[in-house]
Amino acid sequence: MPTPNKTWSAIPGRRRSATADRSLTQLRTVITAFFALDGFVFAGWVVRIPAIKERTGASEGALGLALLGVSAGAVATMVVTGRLCRRFGSHPTTVAAAVLLSLGVALPPLTGSALALGLVLLVFGAGFGGLNVAMNSAAVDLIAALRRPVMPGFHAAFSLGGMAGAALGGLIAGRLAPTPHLALLTAVGLLVTAVAGRALLRLPVPEPGPVSASVSVSASVSASASASAEGSAAPVGRTPEDPARGAARRLVAVFGLIALCTAYGEGAMADWAALHLDQDLDASPGVAAAGYSVFALMMAVGRLSGTTLLERLGQTRTLVAGGATAAAGMLLGSLAPTLWLALLGFAVTGLGLANLFPVAIARSGALTGPSGVAAASTVGYGGMLLGPPAIGFLADGLSLPIALTTVALLAAVAAVVAYGTRGAGRAGGGPA
């Protein structure tokens, strides 16, 4: 097995060999498989939340606190995962986190109270958070080698996996209890990890490719090239507290805020969409599960077109348009009086949120490497940390539809913040 820091050599100005190109293609395929697995397992869990709520007898507020376990476990492990990626490499860390995620998903239906549910969700959340940081770090390294803004494609795989997991859950929700269903997800997760993980551990981390003006429109690629150039030109003795590094950290925090607003919406849809359709619009269990499936489908559509959007519109316009679209869609989805209008709103929300998170994470990783991915992910998944209890308590005090309008509010905030970063690329060393 290669050491974590093994790289392919890249000679500036020369084309990669056919062997290197094949290796990059294989690495892209394997990383995509882990993104799809993450979405599949996570969606399989969320569509069974109504059944597990009924089993535990939890109120909406208590359920919100229990669901906090996923986000708390994820956020608590993210910074640690960034350090593990630097120490052992992002490839081995990805495989280990995928194993933990696959084992953790089987635990929730074994609980009988909201407290016990929250405790086991800490384990599941740790696997989820660790896998997200590790596989995004691996993706950032590959993006630097490919010199193309392909991060949305990886997140499209997450959404497609989520759609498949939600669709499967919807089909068997009325026929199979949560315990065997989630145990099946564990088996699938371990099988995929064994196959894809073996390939990932064989493949070395790619070195950044030569700079090309044709890809300068990509924010993530440009930032990576700028950071590399700046680091190579830095005078001896430059300290971590110099202005350029400080500016990079501030930019990571800003992109983390955009990720937070997006993750809040994704978490709300995952945790509350099925329950909203079930209890407020009298949807059947299968149709209620379709709410998240529709959302995940449109996120996948948006992310599959994300690379083209970034190359044609640029980072700022892509982020602003996405935030505004998501805000309008979620207002419709949460306040619609009919089931089909709500599903339409969820679809528009997924299309709008699609590229906000991947662009924010890619930009942060390009600026400061795995530590940037970990920092932005930690801030971003703070949205998932905040979302479940906030929506739960607002639902108890007001109503669930009103509580879900906070997703629209934060999507609008993301659009405003993204517009405010329109000159951030120049401040941080690359074009916006």
Can you tell me about this structure?
It is a single chain. The chain is mainly α and 432 residues long. The chain is built from 17 helices and no strands. Mean pLDDT is 81; it is low at 1-14, 211-241 and 425-432.
Class derived from helix and strand content? mainly alpha
Order of H and E elements? HHHHHHHHHHHHHHHHH
3D shape: globular
Q: What is the tally of helical segments?
A: 17
Low-pLDDT regions:
1-14, 211-241, 425-432
**Radius of gyration, taken over Cα atoms and rounded to an integer in Å:** 21 Å
Total beta strands: 0
Ends apart, CA distance between termini? 39 Å
Mean pLDDT reading:
81
Helix content: over 70%
Task: Tell me the major beta sheet.
Answer: none
- β-strand percent reads under 5%
Chain-wise SSE layout:
Layout: H1 18-46, H2 49-56, H3 60-88, H4 90-104, H5 114-146, H6 151-172, H7 178-202, H8 219-233, H9 243-280, H10 285-304, H11 306-313, H12 315-335, H13 339-353, H14 356-368, H15 370-397, H16 400-420, H17 424-428
Q: What are its keywords?
A:
single chain; 432 residues; mainly alpha; 17 helices; 80% helix; 0% strand; disordered C terminus
In short:
The protein has 432 residues and is mostly helical. 80% of the residues lie in helices and 0% in strands.
